[in-house]
Amino acid sequence: MQAPSSEDLRFHSSRSSPARLNHTSSLSSHRQSFTESLRGHPPSPRATRQPSFSQAQLQELLNNPPTAGTADPTFSGRDWQTIGVGELCDPADLRWVEFDSGVEDATNLLINSGAHVLLVRHHKDERAAHATYDYRDLTQYLLFATGQLHPDEEHFPIFTSLAKKAQAGHPIPLRDAKSLGNKEPFMTLPATANLTHAIEVFGGGVHRIVIVEEGTDNVVGILSQLRLVKFLWENGRNFPIIDSLYSSSIRELGIGSQQTISVNGDKALKEALKLMNNEGLTSLPVVDNQFNVIGNISNVDVKLLTKSSSAPLLDNTCIHFISVILSTRGMNDGKDSFPVFHINPYSTLAHTVAKLVATRAHRMWVTESPSPSLASTSMPQLSQPSVSHPPSHLSSLPQSNPPFLPLSNSPSISASAMPGANMGGRLAGVVSLTDILNLFARASGLHPTDPDERRRQRRRSSSSSMMRGSLDSARSSSLDISTASIKR
Hints:
The chain is of the alpha/beta class.
């Protein structure tokens, strides 16, 4: 997913505006060509073109970006609280796997389909879902397979059984991988339920709801926090109570949290993944020694780690992994990609929501003026990241021998060398989709549960399957999802 620049966010028609603010005299003195003189054509309009936006107008556009396109006329004049959750779902978006499917096959489908979640059922003819499989589950399995996840007494037999299967070269069924723990509560709503039910659930910290036919368990769609926020953003003019909030700043609305969890850019990537898993987080800000935000790592990024040749990245730094993420996006999208996962306390709610929708992120980091960094402020050209790849024959080794090689001494990448490293600021807080939907619910007279309590429950659930110590049998297992022919 490419993180667009601020001018990309919902006002594509004004892309060229900033470039017109400071015309040089060379443009105003445009000379006619010889052919123009002979044909008597009028002078080029560039000679008299005026700036399209003043600096004040441009700043106003940045703070209050217009919504993309037009509102859906289907919902014009309707109270959003009466709209059914099924009206926001599309059955074509559903992707299914079975409990007996291998983890490799499920991961293959998750990555190649572009879906953010798979529905898990008992058999192919079934239309009822009993669980989900997403990138948080994949992160947890990756940590298990590389020996980073350790069980308590209750889960020790499960871990031992999975480790023995991996050592014997047997495929790991999704049913067993899910037994490592559930990261997301499985919740359903009938398609006829209105959005007030959904926004109260989302405002309490649940990330997605499975939508079923009335009176049955047959799934007709999935509604996520992001889809609901996007819907309310694009159709905001039809919902005055919510629309009136967009012009206020984050500070004025008093939303978000000043209690943030971050990781230093010099820490090993595996430490960041363990932190995300233990705290029940979907993304994590990467900071320098002065807590300036220099990047972002999300659960979705673990798809870059599903090949055995990528295993050395786990022992390299978070900064190095960010360079790999940006480089991969650049190769896939054909242009450079810079993180824009941050706002400031004076950013309007409109600006914040526009960024969330455009980047498809779950949260924005609130930053203040950057603190002086001990690193050099120079910005050298970022070259292709140096990643050590083991020889390809390692993938065919027996499962009892991990196909990992120690990371070679590749040059480390400092925070000052990262594109956009000086564009963030000092980490001061976070605003999530949960915070925004909680605000919408309270402004509409609803009573969502406390999202902080949900976060505490998620962290207790995440940490309940962990303990001090080491499980050697799990450490000797291997994760080589590349053998499932996952295509890049």
